[in-house]
Design goal:
60s Ribosomal Protein L30, Chain: A; six-stranded mixed β-sheet; 12 strands; globular
């Protein structure tokens, strides 16, 4: 996870990035599929930020590994605290976690579950959420007041993959 390079009023973040802002005219945007974005702000100091988590939780031979998700959340929270936010006043909204491709693992559900569990464990109130489904989302977050706007992108129709019939190799001898 790295901090996005934008510093102006409009900051766009992509996978594995985060951004924070204290600008009254600031907006942070991203586009999500199975990824999850957490928008966190302090309503008194009027600072906020957003992260874009690609994979929050992975499964290894040793069990579940949450390091990437914890890192993403702590980097965002610590950046807000450095800007004057009080961890006890933080509020959150969560977006994303869609199941984008039928038949594959549901990484979106795992990402959303991680973030919701993290917020509950850390005592950060969840003010709003839009998670799951099968559509991509475009998110606009206004960090000074915690407003968020979402636009969903209609899911493409399911495609049926037709496979060519396999031709058996023949040697000219027919058995009956």
């Amino acid at each position: 996870m790295k901090r996005a390079t934008g510093r102006g009023p409009n900051i766009n973040i992509t996978q594995d990035e985060f951004a924070v802002s204290d600008r009254h005219d600031g907006v942070i945007t991203t586009i999500l599929g199975s990824c999850v974005a957490t928008c966190i702000w302090d309503p008194i100091v009027k600072v906020g930020g957003m992260n874009h988590i690609l994979v929050a939780r992975s499964h290894t031979a040793l069990g579940i590994n949450d390091f990437a998700g914890i890192n993403a959340m702590e980097l965002l929270i610590n950046a807000l605290v450095r800007m004057g936010a009080d961890r006890g006043r933080l509020n959150a909204k969560v977006f994303g976690g869609a199941a984008m491709i039928n038949g594959l693992s549901d990484i979106g559900h795992a990402n959303a579950s991680f973030v919701l569990e993290f917020l509950e464990r850390e005592g950060i109130p969840l003010i709003g959420k839009s998670i799951g489904g099968g559509s991509a989302r475009q998110i606009r977050f206004f960090p000074s007041d915690g407003r968020a706007m979402q636009r969903t992108v209609a899911a493409p129709p399911d495609l049926e993959v037709k496979r060519k019939p396999v031709q058996e190799e023949r040697n000219g001898v027919e058995l009956f």
